[in-house]
Amino acid sequence: MLAQDSILRLDATAIDYIIIALYFTFVLGIGYLAKRAVSNSLDFFLSGRSLPAWVTGLAFISANLGAIEIMGMSANGAEYGMPTVHYFWIGAIPAMLFLGVVMMPFYYGSKVRSVPEFMLRRFGKPAHLVNAISFAVAQVLIAGVNLFLLATIVNVLLGWPIWASVIVAALIVLSYITLGGLSAAIYNEVLQFFVIVAALLPLTIVGLHKVGGWQGLVDKVTASPGGSEQLSAWPGNALSGFSSNFLSVIGLVFGLGFVLSFGYWTTNFVEVQRAMASKNMSAARRTPIIGSFPKMFVPFIVIIPGMIAAVVAPELAQFKATGSGDVDYNDALLILMRDLLPNGMLGLAITGLLASFMAGMAANLSSFNTVMTYDLIERYVVKDRPDGFYLRTGRWVTVVGTLIAIGTAAIASGYSNLMDYLQQLFSFFNAPLFATFILGMFWKRMTATAGWVGLVSGTATAVAVFVLSENGVIDLPGQGASFVGAGAAFVVDIILSVIVSLVTTPKRDTELVGLVYSLTPKEHLKEDAQHGDGGWYRKPVLLAGISLALTVALNFVFG
Amino acid sequence: MADREKKKAGAFDIRVVIATLIGIYGLVLTILGIIADPKEVDKAAGININLWGGIAMLAFAALFVAWARLRPIVVPITERPADAPEE
């Protein structure tokens, strides 16, 4: 896929380049406009807690709609078919709703500025340090991965050298984040969301038309090597790696649906930061809930094109039948774009992909600079300076983070397997974090020592399972290994936290108000409704109920 | 004075920015669709996707502008509630 003369080279013309260039002009323009609203560090790192819920809600899912999501999920669609929807309907929506309904009052209500800072308030310094450092390291490395993937795609599609696209992309992201901080990142994520939809929806429609409508797709997939089981979401054996239907459903619901996804969506600061930027408690709670509505329909413009590509593109169909060929599943979207889109729409489709890759990296960097500045530098290194100092620090940290990401991308271009490992490994990291959070929020007896012991042991368990499965000691194809790794990390974390808590001294109740459920007065969790919070459609719990009902209905329709 | 300026600047409306970009895209694609070469149309399985996509984007842009007009961003007249004291 690294070849300079790839068979996937798109026939981009001047008009396509104009469309791409126009997008980047807007991206930088937003950075410039957002800069005018930055006058202190809270503006820079949390958008001054001033954004409306629909903006943060779209940014919430857009930050996750990066390279891995779009290319990876269309590849999964081509390989596994409909069961891929579980990554959205089981693997995201319940956790997003849980974040909005149950956890956000603690995050927003306690006025912490980051997820590690919540850790600090609840469990003290050791747990805070563990969390802040592992998060910061993970974010710059993932930013590097995103940067590298972007450069690879530009190389394949347009023939630019990898190093050139790495530097150009890094410079663009760097300029708008250092200028406008989180607001620039969030506004660009919202813009990116619409550009991605404008790029992928026409592709899906043309693809469906080409394959003979929905019925045509059903017939062709049934006749393809995948067979008709790729048309229904359940039980998804191929995806989970379990041969028994029962175990597969259990694995999906608990492994993907509970441990992996709750860990990711509820404790990952990249996501939570978007909600923290909203203007009040009600908007913060609505952020992930509003995000869940577009999220449930994203599979239709990502997975369906993948499935279409696997049956209409001869190269990909051959790969699916024989397991060899010039292309693989990751190329599904690109093949479809190459074969179906005329110039103009083609430029827009390329723009959509570039937008998505870049926003992923921007999200990593904008949360990295916050944790680095507030949680590590301000807390442990250079304390008690005026706010302007931390604002400047945040800008410089962004520059340094970008440089490290370029370095990571350079390493990745030499060892592409290493990057796969890193990505998989980080997918385990959130499971113990979620265990510690949920226990800490609902069990006031949990102690500070238990906080960091649980985190460290849970993470160690995840790493151990990862190493064992890489060495073939545990043999589960598909996503089975991640499910088991995350599940084991979760259980070990809970058990050790409980044991350690019982033999150490808990914090005093008065220190835990606003942080632990049973010690927090109800009014503390429910801010008074403010101007703009009226109307039934702005009630977080009701909205969450509607979202859940829709998701269940979708599962029945496509089950 | 500086404070008032800050609030005005903070109220730039992302909806208008989105509508502008998508609107320009819509215009370009619609024109491309009108002057389309029939061979290109065949590539997209017989749908003139530039034309229809372009029209849809123009409609979307119009909708967003209408939304921004009907519900403009309200700049609070009262002082923004002070953020909770940092620790």
UniProtKB/TrEMBL annotation, chain A:
GO cellular component, one term: plasma membrane
Subcellular location: Membrane
Broad class of the protein's primary localization: membrane
PROSITE patterns: NA_SOLUT_SYMP_3
Keywords annotated in UniProt: Membrane, Transmembrane, Transmembrane helix
InterPro entries per record: Na/Glc_symporter_sf, Na/solute_symporter
Regions that span the bilayer: 14-34, 54-75, 87-108, 129-154, 160-179, 191-209, 246-267, 288-313, 346-372, 393-415, 421-443, 450-469, 481-503, 541-558
Gene Ontology MF terms in the entry: D-glucose:sodium symporter activity
Pfam family, one: SSF
Protein's membrane topology: Multi-pass membrane protein
NCBIfam families: sss
Protein family (similarity comment): Belongs to the sodium:solute symporter (SSF) (TC 2.A.21) family.
The protein's name in its UniProt record: SSS family solute:Na+ symporter
TrEMBL record, chain B:
Protein name as it appears in the record: Uncharacterized protein
Transmembrane intervals: 12-35, 47-70
Keywords: Membrane, Transmembrane, Transmembrane helix
Domain of life: Bacteria
